[in-house]
Amino acid sequence: MEINGTTFEDYALASANAAAGMTKSQIAEVFGMELPVWEATEQQWIGKMSELEAGGNAMQFFGEAFM
Question: Can you give the pTM of this predicted structure?
Fold first, then answer.
């Protein structure tokens, strides 16, 4: 699944980079998006997170991205 061309894995890595200090503008630039598009993508992925299986591979990857 992708949201605005951003896979879950891309979103997880972007989130980890944001936690490490990367700005939303920098993340948007990496994805070749305007900032409002990235912010909408981020919000949509946040909404989709609740649909992912807690013990599934996606959530495991998300956690590993922060390590």
Answer: 0.75
